[in-house]
Amino acid sequence: MALNFEKEKLISELKKRNPKKVLVQLPEGVKQDAFEISEIFEKLGIEAIFSGETCWGGCSIAIHEAKELNADLIVHFGHAEYMKTEFPVIYIEIKDELDLEPLMEKSLENLKEFNKIGLCYSIQHRQDIEKIRKFYKNNEKEIILSKKSGVVAYEGHVLGCEYSGLKEIEKEVDCFLIIGNNFHAMGAALAVKKPVFLLDVYNDKITNMENVRDKVLKQRSVLIDKFRKAKKIGIITERKLGQRFGAAEFLIGKLKKKDKETIIITMNEITPDKIMNFYSVDCFIELACPRIAIDDFSKYEKPLITFREALVGLGEKSWDELLEEGIL
Q: Is 326 left (phi over 0), alpha (psi -120 to 50) or beta?
């Protein structure tokens, strides 16, 4: 794996903005490259502080942290722009420079029954899209990129919480191909009903995601039932601006009508250790990224559900409606 940190773009942006102190955010797999990135700032005479907090997406902009450090700029690596903020942020998407052709060759066996393929990619592979389209066209496959919809930055771009662009083209395609990793492919499998295949560039394999949807939906159904029976509910909100899905005030009113006791809990990041300390809570509703509850459900001793799942448990939305809309 060869990562291109787009140094020329970064240097150009830094010279324009002329910051004195910068907070640098790196995804978990890129923190090991902090010294290489640090050299860029040192040569420009800029003080760089690296955030040690987790950075799972473009929604995790560390504005509070930057203000506490008196930084005048955030440089956020590894994700496309997710939202506009008043605090100045430079997004450096990072290019993952890989030869995808051997893996695409391998995928043809999995895709032999499908002619029209809906394509999505994680941001590190955006520069390869034309090569990918050309390869499949040469092998008699039509590629249709997912739409630029919701908070995604580009046509074909996919996020862990945003799959509306896939749904918009679902009727036009026979299956979906996700260029990236299991995280995005799993989300796609939960969002659409057509077959989903992962071109796993980091493990050099093709995965059919068909078994994921049924397994996860069974898990979610069980947790919603536990929520219905729970008496004491903890509603978790995150401090990050991009991590706000649903309204606590709305839920409290509905929960009171069901004779459930509620507390609101704020966290900068939801973890099993933090939740474990609230022994008296029977079930938690998290209003941060829905993938926290869905992907990591087995890590939590108490049921943890999303805002939309809570609506099902409260009778505000039916299970069939949730499935029709897509669980994400």
A: left
Give CA 54 to chain center in angstroms: 13
Output the pTM of the full model.
Answer: 0.89
Residue type, 229: K
CATH class given for the domain over 101-208? alpha beta
Residue 38 is predicted with a pLDDT of 97
CATH annotation of 213-325: 3.40.50.11860
* Residue 202 identity (one-letter amino acid): Y
> Does 26 score more than 70 pLDDT?
yes
Integer Cα distance of 262 and 278 in angstroms: 12
Task: Identify the CATH number of the domain defined by range 2-94.
Answer: 3.40.50.11840
CB atoms within 10 A of CB 55: 22
Q: Where are the beta strands (DSSP E) in the chain?
A: 2-4, 21-25, 47-50, 73-77, 89-92, 95-97, 116-121, 142-145, 175-180, 196-200, 205-208, 232-238, 261-267, 283-286, 304-306
Q: State residue 247's pLDDT score.
A: 84
Query: Mapping DSSP to helix (H, G, I), strand (E, B) and coil, where does residue 125 land?
Result: helix
5 Cβ contact list (under 8 Å, min separation 6): 33, 36, 37, 40, 77, 92, 94
